[in-house]
Amino acid sequence: MAAAGGSAQAPRQYKLAPQRELRVEVLPDGPLRVRLVAGTAEIFGTELPPEGWVPVPPRSKVAIFTWHGATVELDGVSESEYTSDETPMVIYVNTHAILDARRSRARAAAAQGGVLEASQGPRVIVVGPTDSGKSTLCKMLLSWAAKQGWKPTYVDLDIGQGSITIPGCISATPIEKPIDIVDGIPLEMPLTYFYGHPNPSINPDVYKVLMKELAQTLDKQFSGNSESRAAGMIINTMGWVEGLGYELLLNAIETFEANVVLVLGQEKLWKMLKDAVQSKPNIDVVKLHKSEGVVLRNPKYRQKNRSFRIKEYFYGIANDLAPHSNVVNFSDVSVYKIGSGHQAPRSALPIGAEPVADPTRLVAVNISTDMVHTVLAVPYAKEPDEIISSNVAGFIHVTDVDIQRYTNNQENLTFACLCIRCTYLASMFHFRKKLTYIAPCPGDLPSKLLIASSLTWYEA
């Protein structure tokens, strides 16, 4: 059965045979909910509760899968919905079982006081081209592990979409229970480093530096928590797998010391990675089939999805949050961007050396109307030189920059002497210099330092 998008639909039931799934695409503004009538079923590793209605978030592409058979009911409007028996779920759950066994061995090694390497659980990095189902597989592996009582760490390196927080970030958070179907990844304790762009090619050196900062912070946490160390990581990556994208994948594998590489949907990439790490016997590179239910998304859709992700940060998935508007003087905050630093002059370099721009240099940014509609990050840093190594407390959205001048209504006067004119104008004009922004919560910002970005969102 397939539904025509946008048309009114009556509630309908699907009876699913064992190891079958119902694939549903939800409209951007069409409410849809699902109810388990009989049997058992799950969405990306999280079980549906019996009888109760569960809302499915707008723009979602979900697969309702059953291991033993189920009857489910849909109510609302969808873009499409159909059943399928072509699913890689058995392969995926077998992969989970292998990872689970590794976690148990790591826990046992830690209990016996074994070497640190033996007590390290699986560090799994999921790679593959765009629209191969990486984020979905990560959710399933995390939810299944949490269901078994583990608390694995989810690391998201996909700055283009952002499944933990807004795009433009690399983040990590512990997963203590199966991922909520509606709320998604929990945001109570995320570690977030702000790159500020949806594409790593803008400044790949900063992307590498931030990955290293996140990896080192996680290693410190694991060194004092053997249970988290045994539970390991599930690492999501971007879909850029050629050229510089491939180099960054190799860098991520090395930086996070991944010992399992799951390759989705591309045999060429699997072979390249297998050859690249063959000198490292402790890394397994495994090829997995991607789900046929994966939906291809064009660049325009991805851009709109980034805007929705930013909006959800401030207003909530169900539009149930109310951000707070605040106004600050220009003098109360300092805005910096990372990278694009000026080259050192040749006179300051050794003889024969060429000037090279510092990709991680902090550059002070003058507040201007160009910042309207952009997103700024608020780091925990107290000094500018701490910005790169600091994770962020949150984000603000600039709604207005007021540099309007007041005059004494004498702007038409002319002066014979330019220096006299400049002196007089300086006393005659006054500037408001106010920046207006929205934030998720009221109160002062945790830092007066802000990080600029190329991320924009135009509030309707």
From TrEMBL:
Domain Clp1 N-terminal: from-to ranges: 15-106
Positions of the Clp1 P-loop domain: 128-316
GO MF annotation terms: ATP binding; polynucleotide 5'-hydroxyl-kinase activity
GO cellular component: mRNA cleavage factor complex
InterPro entries (alphabetical): Clp1 (IPR028606), Clp1/Grc3 (IPR045116), Clp1_C (IPR010655), Clp1_N (IPR032324), CLP1_P (IPR032319)
Major location category of this protein: nucleus
Lipid biosynthesis recorded as keyword: no
Subcellular location: Nucleus
Keywords from the named record: ATP-binding, mRNA processing, Nucleotide-binding, Nucleus
Positions that bind ATP: 21, 61, 131-136
Superkingdom field: Eukaryota
Family: Belongs to the Clp1 family. Clp1 subfamily.
HAMAP family, sorted: Clp1
Descriptive protein name: Protein CLP1 homolog
Species: Zizania palustris
